[in-house]
Amino acid sequence: IDREELCGRSLECSIHLEVIVERPLQIFHVEVEVKDINDNPPVFPGTQKNLFMAESRPLDSLFPLEGASDADIGANAVLTYRLSPNEYFSLEKPSDDERIKRLGLVLRKPLDREEAPEIFLVLTATDGGKPELTGTVQLLITVLDANDNAPTFDRTLYTVKLPENVPNGTLVIKLNASDLDEGSNGDIIYSFSTDILPNVKSKFHIDPVTGEIMLKGYIDFEESKSYEIFVEGIDKGQLPLSGHCTVMVEVEDTNDNVPIMEFKSLSLPIREDAPLGTVIALISVSDLDSGVNGQVTCTLSPHVPFKLVSTFKNYYSLVLDSTLDRESVSHYAVVVTARDRGSPSLSATAKVSVEVADVNDNAPAFAQP
Ligand SMILES: *[C@@H]1O[C@H](CO)[C@@H](O)[C@H](O)[C@H]1NC(C)=O
Ligand SMILES: *[C@@H]1O[C@H](CO)[C@@H](O)[C@H](O)[C@H]1NC(C)=O
To answer: Cis (ω within 30 of 0) for the bond into 344?
Structure first.
C-alpha cells in the first residue's frame, strides 16, 4: 500500500471496505486506516542551482532559494535545512509561522571576486521521520566582477638612462600596470598625466594599450639633462579607477659638440725685435659637452717660435718663444688645435697668420768692399 499514491498529501487516508456475509446476509463496514511511514526523502527541484551575485552586494542581502518538498505527511514531512560550513553565507530558514515560507542565503561577509570567484555550497534538507531521510542540492555561486581594484604599477618611480642622440622612436620603457578586476574593469589605458610639461610631451609618446613610452624626435643633453614623465593607468570600468607612476629619464652626454675656439685680441704684426714672452693673441676655448667630453686642450703646430701658455681654465695666450728675424722668416702660418677628451674626441683648428714687422737692424752693405 502506498499512502502517497492513495491519498497524496491529505492527512487522513483510509480504505473503505464492505464485507458481505451470507446466510444471514449481513454487511460489515471496514475502515482500513493507512498510516504514513517515512518512505520519501525530501526532494529539491534540481540537483544543482546556479546563482550569480555581484561582488558589490551589501551585507545582509537576501538571496531566495527554493526549498525541498517531501511527499510524506506530518513529522515525516517537516523539513529542517542546513548549509555546508562557509564564511560568506548563513541560511535564513522558514519560520515556524507557516505564513512566512522564506528560505534564502544571507550575505555575512563581503564577496570578493578577486579572492573567491566561485563558491560551492551544499544545502541539505532533513525530514522529521524516524529514521530521518535527507535530500541535497549543490549551490554554485558565481561572483560577478565590480570595478573595485585600481590599476597599480609595480613601482612608483622608474629611472631610465638614455644616451642623447639615440634614434627617433627608441623605446624608453615598457610600463606594465596590473588590475585585479576582470574584463573591461581590468583593461588599462596608459596616458601621460594632464600636468605633464610641454617639453616632455613634445619629446615622448606613450602607447595607450601596450604602455610603451617611445622617443619622439631626439633628445639633447645640452638642452635638458632629465625629463620627468608622469604616467596614469586608467581602467575601462564604468566608474574608472586610476593608478600613477613617474618615469625619470636621465639623458647621458655623448661627445657631440666640437670645441669652439675664439681669438680675443690680436696684436699683429709683431716686431722682429719683440722681447720673448710678448703676447700675440688671447685664445678662449669652450665645449658644450660635459665631463671629459667638454675638457679641451690646445696645441700648436710644430716648428714655430711661439708657444701656448695656459693662463686660466680654457684661456690661453699665444706668446713669443724665441727671437724673430724678419730677414730670415717674415711670415708664420700658426695652426692652433683644440681637442676634447671624449672618445672619439672632437677637435677644431684655427689658423693665424703672423706677419713679422721690419725693424731697422741691418746696416747698408756693399756687395764688394
Ligand atoms: C605584466 O605583468 C603581469 C604580472 O606582473 C604579467 O602577467 C604580464 O605578462 C605582464 N605583461 C606584459 C605585456 O609584460
Ligand atoms: C620621428 O618619427 C616620427 C614617426 O616616424 C615622425 O613623425 C617624426 O617627424 C620624427 N621626428 C623627427 C624629428 O625626425
So the answer is: yes
User: pLDDT for 12-22, tens place per residue?
Assistant: 888 899 999 99
Residue range of the domain that includes 15: 1-35
Long-range (24+ apart) CB contacts under 8 A made by 109-113 are 109/59, 110/55, 110/59, 111/53, 111/54, 111/55, 111/57, 111/143, 112/55, 112/143, 112/148, 113/55, 113/143, 113/144, 113/145, 113/146, 113/181, 113/182
Q: How far is the CA of 287 from the centre of ligand 2 (A)?
A: 28
What letter does residue 200 receive in the DSSP assignment?
Answer: H
Q: Best mutation site among 216, 220, 223 for ligand 2, i.e. most ligand atoms within 8 A of its Cβ?
A: 216
- Structure confidence at residue 101 (pLDDT): 62
Ligand 2 centroid to 169 CA: how many Å?
A: 8
Q: 227, 214, 210, 202: which is closest to 175 by C-alpha?
A: 210
Assess if residue 366 is contained within a domain: no
Is residue 362 one of the residues assigned to a domain? no
313 grid coordinates: 681654465
Return the percent helix, strand and coil in the chain, to nearest 5: 5, 45, 50
Among 145, 160, 179, the domain-final residue is 145
Quick check: CB of 202 below 6 Å from ligand 2? Answer: no
Residue nearest (by alpha carbon) to ligand 1 atom 14? 176
- H/E stretch holding 199 reads helix 198-201
The pTM for the full model equals: 0.72
pLDDT at res. 92: 86
Cα separation, 131 vs 361, in Å, equals 145
> What's the CA-to-centroid distance between 35 and ligand 1, angstroms?
69
Is the pLDDT at 267 greater than 60? The verdict is yes
Q: Are residues 170 and 139 in the same domain?
A: no
